Structures are given as C-alpha cells and as structure tokens.
Amino acid sequence: MAESLLFDAHAPREARYEVLTSQLKALMTGELDAIANAANMSALISEAFGFHWVGFYFVKENTLVLGPFQGPIACTRIALGKGVCGTAWENATTVLVPDVEQFPGHIACSALSKSEIVIPIKNSTGTVVGVLDIDSSELNDFSPIDQAYLESWVKLYEEACYA
Ligand code: SME
Fold first, then answer.
1. Do the Cβ atoms of 19 and 6 come closer than 8 Å?
2. Confidence band, pLDDT 50/70/90 cuts, at residue 2
3. Distance in Å, CA 105 to ligand 1 centroid
4. Each residue of 104-157: pLDDT tens digit?
5. What is the CATH number of domain 13-162?
6. pLDDT tens digits for 90-117?
7. Mutation to probe ligand 1, out of 46, 56, 57, 85 (largest number of atoms < 8 A from CB)
8. Which of 50, 51, 96, 158 has minimal CB crowding within 10 Å?
9. Which atom, in ligand 1's list, is nearest to the CA of 87?
10. Which pLDDT value is given to residue 3?
C-alpha cells in the first residue's frame, strides 16, 4: 500500500475525486475492519479537500456514536432523527445542507461549520449502520458532484466492511 496520497492539490475537485477513487479502493483492499477503514477514509477526504470536519458516526444501542474523524472535537452521541446526522440515519438517505442555519435542529458542534453533507452507511441488508458526516466552513460548499462521488466512496466503504 502506498504511504502517501498522490493528487494535485490545485486540480478541480472533480479531478481530485477521480484520481483518489482508486487510491481509496487500494487503501481498503483486504481490510475488513470498519474503524480502520473509517480512519483512513476520513484522513484521505480531509487531506484531499481540507474540509473543516470529516468523520464517521456508528449506530450503537440505537444511537449514533462518534467514530474516527479529522477536525475539531465533536459531539459524541446523536439520537435518531436529531440534527443532520440523525435525519440521514432516520431517512436512510443523503442529506445535503447548503446553509446549516436554515436546517431546523442542526447540531452545531462548531460555529465554523456553514454547510454540511451526511451520507448513510448501510450493511448488506440495507440497514443503516452509521453515517459519514462532512462539514465545510464555506456556505453552499457541496454540489451534486460532491454528493455523487462521496456516495460512490461510501459504497466502496460498505463493500469493504459490510459485504
Ligand atoms: N452537525 C451535525 C452534528 C455532528 S458535527 O457536525 C460533527 C448534525 O447536525 O447532525
């Protein structure tokens, strides 16, 4: 496994997603552990795009519990239906929030977060087992292109850990 990521930090975001997809795949090949892969995937996304916060929450005893992340300290537990993460879990679908102040019930772990995307992680039977949460310090920072690539990366993660 390569020890460092290879990408052009000045390339447009889509080009970075493209070149990093195979590197993410390689990082997770042969590794089944959900925490180990979440840790590397958070680091990869953070290094590639410099988002304010990138991390995972996992469903444990019917609550979301903080997992591996990159960024400032964050809230440790989120209930079903609460905040952006709890909504993505409850609805089992991606939630893209262009302006967190306009999202009723948004949980402000950091005053610097301005926009957010949360993608549910599902096991092989389709049950949500966690979420990938990415916060940006820029308003309206996530486009449908981000959503499509990040959903495809979560699919790679699901295939590696929950197939
Ligand atoms: N803002 C999230 C909470 C998690 S932190 O952003 C890391 C939410 O509303 O679910």
1. yes
2. low
3. 10
4. 999 888 889 999 999 999 999 999 999 999 999 999 999 999 999 999 999 999
5. 3.30.450.40
6. 999 999 999 999 999 998 888 899 999 9
7. 85
8. 50
9. 10
10. 77
pTM above 0.85, yes or no: yes
In Å, what is the CA distance from 33 to each residue of 85, 115, 120? 22, 30, 18
Provide long-range contacts, Cβ within 8 A and 24+ apart, for 37-40.
37/157, 37/160, 37/161, 38/67, 38/68, 38/130, 38/157, 39/68
Using the atom order of ligand 1, give the atom closest to the CA of residue 106: 9
In the chain, where the domains are located? 13-162
39 Cα: distance to centroid of ligand 1 (angstroms): 18
- For the chain, give the mean pLDDT: 96
d(CA 84, CA 73): 17
